[in-house]
Amino acid sequence: MMNTPVLTVNNISAAYGQSIILRGTTLSVKRGAVTTVMGRNGVGKTTLLKTIMGLLPAQEGSILFNNENITALPPHKKAKAGIAYVPQGREIIPRLSVYENLLLGLEAHPDRKAKIPEEEIYSLFPILKDFRKRAGGNLSGGQQQQLSIARALVSNPSLLLLDEPTEGIQPSIAQEIGSILQQLVQQKGLSVLLVEQKIDFANQVTDHYYFMDRGRMVLDGTAEELKHSELEKHIAV
Ligand SMILES: Nc1ncnc2c1ncn2[C@@H]1O[C@H](COP(=O)(O)OP(=O)(O)OP(=O)(O)O)[C@@H](O)[C@H]1O
């Protein structure tokens, strides 16, 4: 079990109406490591995460989570099975307090009596303890990103899908988020599928890269395996 991928995506396709976005996308996500998908704007990275989560149907191909076929499961069942999604733009509920936003994470917890693991969450994200009564909408972008990740962790996932966590936040906070991710991977064995545009942040956390173009993967490997020039070619805007 330890050596098998936590998630395998085989040849999936997905579309918005007539507009086909994923065209035979294949990747595998290593257990207890960070796998990062990079690629230019609009190549289908967000669509890939949405399809894995079940927010968009896969019209062809299959998705295996811990060797079980989850292709057609609805999002709430995937969440209960242990997949958490941190969407691009974070989707904090602005009028709810930080604590109430965290409570929403419990909806996806497989145990209905589960409570927020406050000690763990606040030791990872001390700012959320100080601000627990503050409205989510009054936090800075970086704090909202931390809240969004914390809310995902409240459901006790084994796989975290993370869409551009550094978008619009300052480099020092991005670096902090990077260290927290590393901690979660190394200490809790969390598996992460990250979509990222910033190579510096990606380099801080990534074990294995995939490069996506027009709905499919065109290159993959560890940082050592990939030549810098190749990376630049696939992320240049
Ligand atoms: N809800 C939607 N309806 C129709 N088309 C969409 C929808 N969402 C995204 N698209 C289109 O699908 C394509 C892929 O979008 P997607 O968001 O997956 O790309 P991305 O690689 O994540 O890019 P970005 O980095 O800009 O988020 C784009 O051409 C986009 O315009």
Can you offer a commentary on this structure?
- It comes from Chitinophaga ginsengisegetis.
- This is Urea transport system ATP-binding protein.
- Residues 7-237 form the ABC transporter domain.
- GO terms for molecular function: ATP binding; ATP hydrolysis activity; branched-chain amino acid transmembrane transporter activity.
- Keywords: Amino-acid transport, ATP-binding, Nucleotide-binding, Transport.
- With 237 residues, the protein is α/β, with parallel strands linked by helices.
- It has one domain (7-235): P-loop containing nucleotide triphosphate hydrolases (Rossmann fold, 3-Layer(aba) Sandwich).
- Helix content is 35%, strand content 25%.
- The protein is built from 9 helices and 10 strands.
- Strands 6-7-8-3-9-10 form a 6-stranded mixed beta sheet, with helices on both faces. Strands 2-1-4-5 form a 4-stranded antiparallel beta sheet, covered by helices on one side.
- α3 (98-105) runs parallel beside α6 (141-154).
- The longest helix has 18 residues, at 171-188.
- The mean pLDDT is 93.
- The chain binds adenosine-5'-triphosphate.
- Adenosine-5'-triphosphate binds next to β2 and α1.
Set down the secondary structure blueprint.
Layout: E1 7-16, E2 19-29, E3 34-38, H1 45-53, E4 60-65, E5 68-69, H2 75-81, E6 83-86, H3 98-105, H4 118-124, H5 126-130, H6 141-154, E7 159-163, H7 171-188, E8 191-195, H8 199-205, E9 208-213, E10 216-221, H9 228-235
Bound molecules: adenosine-5'-triphosphate (ATP).
Adenosine-5'-triphosphate binds next to strand 2 and helix 1.
InterPro entries: AAA+_ATPase, ABC_transporter-like_ATP-bd, ABC_transptr_urea_ATP-bd_UrtE, BCAA_Transport_ATP-bd_LivF, P-loop_NTPase
Domain ABC transporter: 7-237
GO biological process, one term: L-amino acid transport
